[in-house]
Amino acid sequence: MTLSLTRLSQTLLLAGLLLQVSPVEAQPKGADPYAYLTASALAKIAPLPETAAIRPTGRTREFTLDVRPGSWEPVKGVKASAITINGTVPGPLIRVAEGDRVVVTVKNNLEESTSIHWHGLHVPNAMDGVDGLTQEAIKPAQTFRYEFLASHAGTFMYHSHSHARAIEQIDAGLYGMLVIDPQNSRGHLKSDRELLMMLSAWNITEDGGHAGMAGGHGGGAGGMQYNYFTINGRAYPDAAEWAVKQGDVVRIRIANVSNLVHPMHLHGHDFVVLAKDGEPLKTPQTMNTVNVAPGETYDIAFIANNPGAWMFHCHELHHTMNGSTQPGGLIQVIRYEGSAAVPAAPKAAPAPAKPSSGAGHGSGH
Amino acid sequence: MTLSLTRLSQTLLLAGLLLQVSPVEAQPKGADPYAYLTASALAKIAPLPETAAIRPTGRTREFTLDVRPGSWEPVKGVKASAITINGTVPGPLIRVAEGDRVVVTVKNNLEESTSIHWHGLHVPNAMDGVDGLTQEAIKPAQTFRYEFLASHAGTFMYHSHSHARAIEQIDAGLYGMLVIDPQNSRGHLKSDRELLMMLSAWNITEDGGHAGMAGGHGGGAGGMQYNYFTINGRAYPDAAEWAVKQGDVVRIRIANVSNLVHPMHLHGHDFVVLAKDGEPLKTPQTMNTVNVAPGETYDIAFIANNPGAWMFHCHELHHTMNGSTQPGGLIQVIRYEGSAAVPAAPKAAPAPAKPSSGAGHGSGH
Amino acid sequence: MTLSLTRLSQTLLLAGLLLQVSPVEAQPKGADPYAYLTASALAKIAPLPETAAIRPTGRTREFTLDVRPGSWEPVKGVKASAITINGTVPGPLIRVAEGDRVVVTVKNNLEESTSIHWHGLHVPNAMDGVDGLTQEAIKPAQTFRYEFLASHAGTFMYHSHSHARAIEQIDAGLYGMLVIDPQNSRGHLKSDRELLMMLSAWNITEDGGHAGMAGGHGGGAGGMQYNYFTINGRAYPDAAEWAVKQGDVVRIRIANVSNLVHPMHLHGHDFVVLAKDGEPLKTPQTMNTVNVAPGETYDIAFIANNPGAWMFHCHELHHTMNGSTQPGGLIQVIRYEGSAAVPAAPKAAPAPAKPSSGAGHGSGH
C-alpha cells in the first residue's frame, strides 16, 4: 500500500498537481483534490419539487401479484419458510408515474386470508387494503383487483394489512417497494445511479422454519427476537454490492418495513436527505446517519467523490448479524469502479516488546 | 360498492365535472376532484408563531390532582391494577394560556411517595417536581401545591418523577396531558378539529395484576415486555373513533409518555408536522409517519380531503396488539362523517383453478 | 425555601423591579424577569456556517491510542471487565482543526484483533478502519498508524470496527469522541461552556464480568439486555455534575455509540439543535428532547436563564437505571453556580383526614 501510494504520488508530482505529496493528499480528486473533505457540494442540491396539481395521465399500468407460501434464503445456508410474491422476497418493484391508473391483481394462494396496503399513497378508501376496515379479506384462492390513480411522486411500499396476521405475514416476506415518478421531471434531482434499499427483519428458528411471530407477546420481548436482517431480501455478505463511479450523484431510496429502527450510517461521505415518506424536505439536511423508523421511507443522495469500498450499514450493530454471526445483516457495500477487490493491506509495525504505559500521547484532551 | 360508485359516477357525469368516470376518480372532491392526490395544500400552512415575550395574564387557574391506587381496563376484559388521577388514566387534561398562574394541588393517596414533573414547561426550579433534586418527595397522605406561570404555548405532559419509582408509577398510569394556548392566537393555525393522543404502554400480568416494572433489568429485556398499548388510556378497538368532516383541517396533539418509540403512520393522507415538544418548526415538514420517541410531543395537522375510514397507527406492529391478539393497541380510527360504518366489500373474483406461475406481470421491475 | 424566596421578593420589591411578588415570579432574570418562559432567544442563534473549501493547515497532530484489556467501574461498586484506551473509557478526546494532518498510532495490546473507524470523518478509504474491507485487522501486539487530513468541523466518534467482534469491543469500551474545530471561527456559535456527552451501554454480569455480547442473538433479545448506561463512562450519580452560570450560552456535544436509542430530555429549558452528525442544520430547531439514535451525534445549545439544578436525561426510563436500581444511568445534572447543593424542601401540608372523592377540580377538561 505504502508502495503503490508512493508511485501514485510520484505521478501526481510529475503532473504538477501537488507541491507536497503524502499518502493522505495523494488521491486523484479532480479539480479540487480536497473536495472530499466537505459536504458543501451537497448543500447546493435543490429541494425536490412537488407537483401541485396531479392530473390523470390516461395511461393504465397493470401488475399481478401472486402471493403464495414458499421459502427464502436471506443468506446462503439459511433457509426459511416465507411468503413470496411472484416467487421473491421482496415482491416485484411497482414503478409508475403520478396520475397513472394503477391496476394490481392480487392472487391469494396462501392458506390464510390477506389484503394489501399501499403504504404512503393517497388512494380511495375502498382501495386502502385494510382488511376489516376498508375491505373484506382476500380469502385463500380468491383474487382481488386494486385500482387507483397513482398519487404524488416518491418512495413507498406495499405490504400485508391482514386483520389478525399482518405481523406474521410481513415477517414472512409479504411486501415490496413502490416508486412513483413525477409527471414532470423539471427541477428533480438528476442522479447518475438510483439504488433501492428495502429493509426487513426475520425471525428464523433453528430448524429452518419461520417462527410464527417475533416478539412473543403476552410475556415476550416485543419484536426483539429478530435474528436476520435483509436489504432487498438478502443479508450481508449476500446482498449484491453497489457499484458507483467517481463523480456520480447517487440516489438511494430506503424503505423500512421491519418493526425495528435502523439508523443507517454511511462511511467516508455525507449524504443529503431529500425526502421523507415521499415528501420533499424544503430544506434538505446533510448527515451521515439516517434513523429509519418502521414505516418510514427516505430518499437520500451522495456525491461519489472519495474512491474506495465503503460500508453503508445499520448502527444498531445487532442488526449487522446473521443469527449469532457478525458481520452480516444490514451492511451494504458501495464500491467505486476500479477499486481493488481486496482490502488494502497497510503494513503494521510490530509493537514494542514492552508496551508503553497507559498514558496517552496527544493534546486537546 | 361497485354499484353505488357507478351511481355516483353518473351523477358526476351529469354535473359535467368529469368526462371519463371510473371507480377511481368518482369521488366528490370539491373543486379539484384530484386534490387528494397531493399534499400540496399542506405546504401552504404557515409555521406556528411563537410569543416573543410572555407576560403574566393576572389570571389564576387552579387544579386538583387526586393520585391514588385503582384499576384500569385498557381494553374490555383486561383489568390491571393502576394509579389513577381523579379516577382516570390518563389524568385530566390541564389546559391554560401563556402567562396564566397555574396552581396544582397534588394529593398523594398512594402508599408510596411521588412527585409531579411538568414535562416541557419552563417552571422555577423548586416547582420542577424532581423528587430528590428539586423537592422532597410527596409522602403518602401529603399534599403538595405546585405554582408557576404557564410558559410558551404548546403540547406538553405531566407525569411522576419519583426518585426511585418513576418507571413503575408511569407504567401504572401516573400521567396526563397539558396544553398551553398562546396569549394571542393571531397567526396560529385555525383548525376545525383538535384531537389529543396520549400514547402509553402497560405490562399486565396474567392474573390481572400490574407487573412491578416492565423490562426486568439486571438481566432482562429493557422495557420490552410491555404487552398493552393505549391512546388516551384505551386500546383498539376500545379507543373512541375520531369523526371528521370533509374539508376539515384537523390538528392532532401527540404525547408519548411510554418508554418505547412509536412511529405513527396515517393512511390515505399526509400530515404536516407543525411543532415538536411545543416548539414550532420554522419549516413545517410533510410526511405520513412521525416517529414519536419517549418524552416527545408533536403537533400535526392534516386536511380531510379523502373520505372514508382510515387508520392512524403505530408501525411497530407489536404495538398494535392486545397481549397476544392483533389488531389492538395503538390504532386510531378516523372516520369521515357519512362514511359507512361497515367496511366496503368489493367483490373478489375466484382465483383461476390453476394459479399462474410465479412469474410477475407488469413493468418497471 | 418559602422563607428565602420571601426575602428575595422583598429585595426585588425594594429594587422596584416588580409590583407584585410571589414565589413564581421572584427569580432574578435580568432585564426581562419573564425571559425564561420562552425559547425565543434561541431562535436568534444563527445556523453554524460550513467551510466550503478545506485546505491543509500544514500542521500535524499526533496521538497514540493504547488499547488493552482492563476493568471499568461505571458506577461505584460495579466493576466490569473492559477494554480501555490509554487506561480509560471512553478513550481520550481527539480534538483537531479542519485540514490538520492527523496521525493516530493504535497499539493493540488486546488478545484479539481490532481496527479503528473514524465515524463521520471523510478519510481516504485505506484509513477508514473497516477490518476486512479497507484494511487487514490489527493483530494482537501489532501497531497501526492511521493518517488523514481532518475533514469538516463537527462532533464525531472513533470506535472499533473489528470484523467479527465490533459489538463486543464497543460494548466493552473501545471508543472515544473526536471533535474537529473549524478553520475559521467566524460566524460560529460563541458559547460560554462547551460540554461533551458520550452515551454508551453496558451488559455487566453478576460476577462483575463483562458479558460477551448483549442481546443473545440466535434466539435472544437483540441488544436489549444492557443494564448499565454511561455518560462519558460514568452512570448517575457518579457522572460529574455540570456547572453553568446565569446567562451562559451552553453548547453540548452528544455522541451515541451504544446500540440503543436515547431520547435526551432537558428540564426547565429548551435547547436548539445546531448540527447533526457534524453537519449544520440550515434551520436550527428548538426542542426539549432530542432522540439520539445509535451512530448519531448532535450539537445542541441552551441559554442558562432559569437558575437551579436541572436534569438532562434519557426518557427511555430503563436507561436511567443502574442494574435494577433507579435512578441511575443516563442522568446528567446541570447545576447553576450558587444553587443550593441540597434539594429545596417546600412544605407539604398534610392531606385532609378524609381525602376528597376522585372528582377533579379544574377546567379545560
How would you briefly describe this protein structure?
The structure is a homotrimer of 365-residue chains. Chain A is mainly beta and 365 residues long.
Structural features, described:
3 copies of one chain form a homotrimer. With 365 residues, chain A is mostly beta strands. In chain A, 5% of the residues lie in helices and 36% in strands. In chain A, a hairpin with a 2-residue loop joins strand 14 (271-276) and strand 15 (279-287). The longest helix of chain A has 13 residues, at 2-14. The radius of gyration of chain A is 24 Å and the shape is globular. The model of chain A is unreliable at 1-29, 214-223 and 350-365 (pLDDT under 50). Chains in contact: A-B, A-C, B-C. The interface between A and B is large, with 89 and 77 residues.
Given helix and strand content, the structural type of chain A is: mainly beta
Question: Could you tell me the number of beta strands of chain A?
Answer: 20
Low-confidence stretches of chain A: 1-29, 214-223, 350-365
Strand order of the largest sheet of chain A: 10-9-12-17-14-15
Compute the CA-based radius of gyration of chain A: 24 Å
Outline the secondary-structure elements.
The structure is a homotrimer of 365-residue chains.
Chain A: H1 2-14, E1 60-75, E2 78-85, E3 94-97, E4 101-108, E5 116-119, E6 142-149, E7 154-160, H2 166-172, E8 175-181, E9 193-202, E10 228-231, E11 242-244, E12 249-256, E13 262-266, E14 271-276, E15 279-287, E16 289-292, E17 297-303, E18 309-314, E19 331-336, E20 349-350
Parallel strand pairs in A: 1-4, 3-8, 9-12, 11-19
Antiparallel strand pairs in A: 1-2, 4-6, 5-7, 7-8, 9-10, 12-17, 13-16, 13-18, 14-15, 14-17, 18-19
